[in-house]
Design goal:
The protein is α+β, with helices and mostly antiparallel strands and 159 residues long. The longest helix has 17 residues, at 46-62. The protein has helices spanning 10-20, 22-27, 46-62, 94-97, 120-131, and strands spanning 5-9, 31-34, 41-45, 69-77, 80-87, 136-141, 145-153. The chain has five helices and seven strands, in the order βααββαββααββ.
């Protein structure tokens, strides 16, 4: 698979992915809040970035409780932008946390409404993030939620 990095307006890409997830979020009465700075531009393969965002947002919805909130934020980290997607759902126990991004390990998780989760999406997110010069990581606490974050190259020039 070829990576075609281009200059992207991060807030626009995120807003489109939020719109793609609107129906699933409404089904659980989940509010998605984005505080992404409108001046952030990144250099990434658009399809790969959209896939990572959609996957992480979909997972956040699956693992959020009814009437929950999902927060999307971004901050500058040297030559990268770190994007985070935080839910306040079930969280992930430490044993499963260490297996999330490994193709060699399987994690048997279900969403709060018993939604199916294969775990393959996170492996794809890791691959796409790394192909674009970034990293992906997670912090989670059982019954307090999870924050999935990834870095993407920062585009220093403004459009």
């Amino acid at each position: 698979m070829v990576t075609n990095p281009e200059k992207l307006h991060l807030q626009t890409v995120i807003d489109k992915k939020i719109a793609n997830c609107k129906s699933a979020a409404e089904n659980k009465n989940i509010e998605i809040k984005s505080t992404v700075n409108e001046n952030f531009y990144v250099k990434a393969d658009e399809m790969m970035l959209k896939t990572v965002l959609l996957n992480l947002l979909s997972n956040a919805i699956k693992f959020s409780n009814q009437d929950g909130i999902i927060e999307i934020g971004a901050k500058i980290k040297d030559k990268h932008v770190e994007v985070s997607i935080k839910d306040f759902g079930e969280g992930i126990n430490e044993t499963d946390l260490n297996k999330l991004f490994s193709i060699d390990s399987s994690v048997n998780l279900r969403g709060t409404n018993k939604e199916e989760v294969s775990g393959l999406g996170l492996i794809l997110c890791k691959e796409f993030t790394e192909r674009n010069g970034g990293n992906i990581f997670v912090k989670s606490a059982k019954d307090k939620g999870s924050t999935f974050s990834f870095t993407v190259k920062r585009e220093l020039e403004m459009i």
